[in-house]
Amino acid sequence: MERRLLDSEQDAFRDTVREFIRREVTPHLDAWIADGVTPRDFWRRAGATGLLGISVPEEYGGTGISDFRYNALLVEQLCRAGSLGLGSTVGIHTNIVAPYLTGLATPEQRQRWLPGFVSGDIITALAMTEPDAGSDLKAIRCQAIPADGGWVLNGQKTYITNGWNSDLVIVAAKTDPAAGHRGMTLFAVPSDSHGYSRGRPLHKVGQRESDTAELFFDDVWIPRDNLLGEVNRGFYHLMEGLAQERLSVSVMAVACCESILESTTTYVRERQAFGGRLADLQHIRMTLATLATETDIARVYVDRCIEEHNAGALSALDAAKAKWWTTELQRRVADECLQLHGGYGYMEETTISRAWRDGRIQTVYAGSTETLKDYIGRQLTS
Hints:
- The chain is an alpha+beta fold.
- The protein contains 11 helices and 10 strands.
- It has helices spanning 8-24, 29-35, 40-48, 68-80, 84-103, 107-119, 234-270, 282-310, 316-341, 351-359, 369-381; strands spanning 124-127, 143-147, 150-161, 168-174, 184-190, 196-201, 212-223, 227-228, 272-273, 276-277.
- The strands form 3 sheets. Strands 1-4-5-8 form a 4-stranded mixed beta sheet.
């Protein structure tokens, strides 16, 4: 089915992203995966190409484009190039952290942080998850206590994407523990703050080029001018950003499905078995037919979500539906296509094995499938 979401301007931007990936990503990706981190030079090259400041106002060095189609194309093309890990790490910066800095930051804060954000000199992260609080944000224990015209932050965060490379981390902390989720506040914490430290880089099953770390805060003093948004409104600020975060994950999921299906279709056309091509076997064709149909339907839904988001009308409910469905589809597409590759698909150097490994976490972060289904069910029955 013809995709009608994009026009000539987005097509041109997509060409720019593809050329950047061809030149700056593909030749180095295997090395980054082996190292478990993407080097800082990548960020600066992406910034110089104009890829990190899509939604940032021009006065801070960005392009000032509020059209999410551009954000979607960036992470989509990274995924289609075989790096869901880069889609995730860049997506955290451009699609998830950016709205907090452009929407909640004061003019002074924007002037302080956004030029570096755009150039790639400031890498950002969002620190919500804790050892005992994942999808259940209300359970976080990280706490900030008022002191000396600011706050003193103590606690731990874990599984933080960009945690190792990050220069500025948005941290969710309790400022009124007795108030539950109504007592949560967001702070922008520079990584050179006294008392801030990183634990060991976390070694993941997949997305190894995307650095992930534990973060520790031991009496970190946060000045008042590093408060992001309103005191005790942090939970609501986070909820406002969830629709775009889940949409970004959905975009990556569909792009991965499409890429996996393209490479698998090529493989079964060329692979000889039982006296002919794998593609000549009815079971192979029916498997691909099912997965291709479901992927096309997912693409239409996600593209419609992008249109709704651009119009300011994407609901949290519809974003949750998109996220759980597309990521579960991605998991199934990767698993069934690996099966079609046979033993070859289980070799670490193959693109299908990488897609299978990298995609597994997609059903967990940004709201697990179980959490989102429960949320959707409650909305339907309340």
